Task: structure prediction
Amino acid sequence: MDKHNDNDLVLEVNTRFYKALGTRDLELMGTVFVHDDRAGCMHPGWVMLKGWEAIRQSWENVFDPRDQLEIKLHNLTVELEGDAAWVTCIQELIYINREPVMMNVSVSTNIFEKNGSQWKMVIHQASPMPISAQQETEGNNLQ
Result:
């Protein structure tokens, strides 16, 4: 496969990750990650979880089917190097069904590996990105 096609495939898996997160779909999330001890996931403000079973359990614990989650990605970049790829972005999560409505903005790095023709997420890392009250009132530039 050529680099352009791999770029599209990595973006497809990255999109599937955020769809699983937004729809609270544990089964879909399972199609994204590698299912071994190399898998890692760091939710904003958490420590790194290692291994697919710990990651799956964390998603099961945080997924609330009553939540409506709108996700916006900004500053998305994709880099490819052989059978490795990484996507960086700013992820804006808006929890609509909470009172008051909550917003979480994080800087995210998603690392993927290619196995045959398939790309799988090895690491998801999201770190909180504070927004000052002034930025909130003036609007943000997360484009």
